[in-house]
Amino acid sequence: GIQVEQSPPDLILQEGANSTLRCNFSDSVNNLQWFHQNPWGQLINLFYIPSGTKQNGRLSATTVATERYSLLYISSSQTTDSGVYFCAETGANSKLTFGKGITLSVRP
Amino acid sequence: DTEVTQTPKHLVMGMTNKKSLKCEQHMGHRAMYWYKQKAKKPPELMFVYSYEKLSINESVPSRFSPECPNSSLLNLHLHALQPEDSALYLCASSQEMRQGGDEQFFGPGTRLTVL
Questions:
Q1: Residue A94 in contact with partner chain B when CB distance is under 8 A
Q2: Cβ proximity of A104 and B46 under 8 Å
């Protein structure tokens, strides 16, 4: 089946720093989503990005489908960016396959 | 409105209890999903409903019983659960269920503790 790998597994940043989170997937991507799970468990949609580049405020994402990876960029990080970042790929029958997540801690 | 709501937020139940989790969306989506998430793990798919019919059951034990009474509502009935069923239960919806997938939107989850 589809495998999704995320790196690094953990990331600690000082407030104001920039970071890049990576997602590799094993098969041709149908659709790729990035989520932020906050400390209360809510999964917040960040990007729906099967290919190309999108930006939303301090966040941007790029998916290179031919090379089977996606990157999430966080600029000028804030403490509220802390949490777990998941990428997930949609395969057959709308099944989302999640990576293991990247735990981000932003320190003041 | 891109909101999926879930009730209750927290639930504590004994192994002999019967309880239900509820999920609602008003985005006109025709696919709805239940996921289970254990601590420090990614969400795992349990069930998918498409046009109010059960389309996918990921070999979930029968002590979990899903129900989709209409296109906006999704329930998960719980009976005779085990302590290892304690987890965060997430509901999601998407425009449709199709190969290649539509964007899924998640509710805030119900944190379930089984004593």
A1: yes
A2: no
> HSE (CB half, 13 Å, CA atoms) of A58?
12
Q: Is the peptide bond before A8 cis (omega within 30 degrees of 0)?
A: yes
Angle at A54 between CA A51 and CA A60, to 5 degrees: 115
* Chains A–B, number of C-beta pairs less than 8 Å apart: 67
H-helix or E-strand spanning residue B19: strand B18-25
Mind listing the pLDDT tens digit of every residue in chain B (115 residues)?
569 999 999 999 999 999 999 999 999 999 999 999 999 999 999 999 999 999 999 999 999 999 999 999 999 999 999 999 999 999 999 998 877 778 999 999 999 999 9
Both tokens of residue B92?
Answer: 């999601």
Going by C-alpha positions, the residue among B17, B112, B111, B29 that lies closest to residue B73 is B29
Does residue B111 belong to the interface with chain A, where contact is any CB pair within 8 Å? yes
Chain B CB within 8 Å of residue A83 CB: no
Structure confidence by residue, pLDDT tens digits, A56-96: 999 999 999 899 999 999 999 999 999 999 999 987 667 88
List all residues 6 or more positions away from A52 whose beta carbon is below 8 Å from its beta carbon.
A62, A63
Beta carbons within 10 angstroms of residue A9's beta carbon: 11
